[in-house]
Design brief:
Blueprint lengths: L5 E5 L3 H13 L3 E5 L2 H10 L4 E5 L7 H4 L9 E5 L11 E4 L4 H24 L7
Parallel strand pairs: 1-2, 1-3, 3-4, 4-5
């Protein structure tokens, strides 16, 4: 893993995007932003992100829709004021309004997730070339 975690912040409100992006940048992360669900899918299809923070309620294609289109090995947090009925596909939640401490915990959770994926991958039998 590179020294900087790559994070995608997705929210339809520009102020929310700027605030969370600034917090993650302050914590040493490389941050990209998307203003909606379709933009998030486009960004995630061409780049790898260690963490995606998805606003659950956006016009059109919301976070609850987007999360089901992402690979299962992608770490995704629901970023919302609404923590009711969060789809199981999300790996956790990041509350609004966000705090630096909560963002720090999100980073730690993403790092732990990646470590667990790496351990599982290392345990898989290696395919022998025919």
């Amino acid at each position: 893993m590179s020294s900087k975690l790559r994070i995608l912040v997705v929210d339809d409100h520009p102020i929310n995007r700027r605030i969370l992006a600034a917090i993650f940048a302050h914590l040493g992360c490389a941050v990209a932003t998307a203003q909606g669900g379709l933009d998030a899918l486009a960004a995630s299809s061409v780049g790898h992100y260690d963490l995606i923070c998805l606003d659950r309620h956006m016009p059109g294609f919301g976070g609850d829709d987007v999360v089901n289109c992402l690979p299962h090995d992608q770490f995704v947090l629901a970023w919302s004021t609404d923590d009711n009925d969060v789809p199981e596909r999300f790996n956790g939640t990041l509350p609004k309004p966000v705090t630096v401490a909560a963002a720090g915990h999100a980073i730690l959770a993403a790092v732990a997730w990646q470590a667990a994926i790496a351990r599982r991958t290392a345990k898989l039998p290696q395919r022998v070339a025919a």
